Amino acid sequence: MRRLLANWELKLLSVVIAFALWLLVVGSGKSQLAVAAVVEYTGLDSDLVLVGRPRDTAEVELEAARWAVGRLTPGAVRVRVNLAGTREGENVVALSPDLVQAPAGVTVRRVTPARLQVTLAGAVARTLQVVPRIRGVPEPGYAIVRVTAEPATVQVKGPRSTIEGRTIVETVPVDAAGRRETLTQSVGLVLPEAAYLTDQPRVLVTVQIKPEEPMGRGRREGAVR
Questions:
Q1: How far apart, in whole angstroms, are the C-alpha atoms of residue 77 and residue 62?
Q2: Beta carbons of 206 and 184 less than 8 angstroms apart
Q3: Beta-bridge partners for 190
Q4: Which of 10, 44, 87, 124 could form a disulfide with 83 if both were Cys (CB 3.0 to 4.6 A apart)?
Q5: What are phi and psi of 143, to 5 degrees?
Q6: Residue pLDDT, tens place only, 126-180
Q7: How many CA atoms are closer than 13 Å to the CA of 128, on its beta-carbon side?
Q8: Helix (H) or strand (E) holding 89
């Protein structure tokens, strides 16, 4: 026991120094890796809209401390592309490491591609009538008597060439096959390419279903009137 306690101050100091050296080695270790980062477009003028198929990811080469690797979750690395000052038509935007958002302990080394080509078109907003699409028919003996959408109109913004001249926008189909009672569903809208909603993204569609009236009953009631 005395041997174990002999020079305990020096032994404790040795342990502390060894632990500090271990932390230094681990902390200075670097990992090289590449991730597919989401591309975010910002700063676009309100009278313009992205058209075509703008690139949605870019390859980013990173150097991360070992303790920071666990922070590289999906979506943790993003490339923010500022489109302020761009014009209608074809535009070339340079990508650089300083445009990348990454967690602490992560250094951005390179972004691929080095340039992006984006196409912009003049934008216009219009109020369109919502037209519900119904798929299938109710159970035999039942019929659809009324279909409504709430809201009845929505504002859609998109390329002028696509939006101008439109008066309606259809919903995603609501399945009424085999139904025997009224149903209400929250559904999305089928939008033209490069168009988007300026307000709520979904509408409530109500399909009112009732039993069919026998033909004979309807005729007798008509005769009485």
A1: 10
A2: yes
A3: none
A4: 44
A5: -145, 155
A6: 999 999 999 999 999 999 999 999 999 999 999 998 998 899 999 999 999 999 9
A7: 30
A8: strand 89-94
